[in-house]
Amino acid sequence: MRNLIPVISLEGGRELTDERRGEGVYDAVPAVMRRLDSDKRMFGVSVTLTSRNYDDVIRNDYLKLLQALGCRAAFLIEYVPCGAEDKALCLTQAQKTHLRQIEKQLYRQCDMLVVSLPGNEDPYGGCLASGRGFLHISSTGALAPCPFAPWSDVSAKETPLKVALQSHLLKKIREGHETLRESRGGCALKENAAWVAALQKD
Question: Which residues span the domain enclosing 127?
Fold first, then answer.
């Protein structure tokens, strides 16, 4: 199916990948990558950046290793906490600052697409969700502000996209985007969950 591109989830090196994905997963992945590459199949890798794996993924030659295995895209997604108990996994401020400083360098030094999410949104006035720059359509058709913010008041299955973009919730979020400054956990919407929930009740 030429319109589908496999994206393999890794957590950096062997220890953290096997800890989250299961023992032996890290060692099995290179063989899968080589097979995809030998079949001339485009594929990518998704890595959740945490305070624990940041140095392994960003500061070392990790991305070049993925490229050598045939990877053509790397999605570096900043960790979004589920609650107070896992906030320690969020990137530290020093790590976030370093990532912002070297993002362009990462893009240039790799012969593949490198995308960091949410990326540096400050030059664009904060959060780009709700159609300011992107949005998310779930498998059920719910039109949400972004993949990390599962709030929705409209279905893309039932409403034309141009009309759906003017839904009450999405419009209110766009109008109040100055509230959504970058948070430590990556997702400004989730950081302001109470505000978003209140918008649904307006």
Answer: 122-201
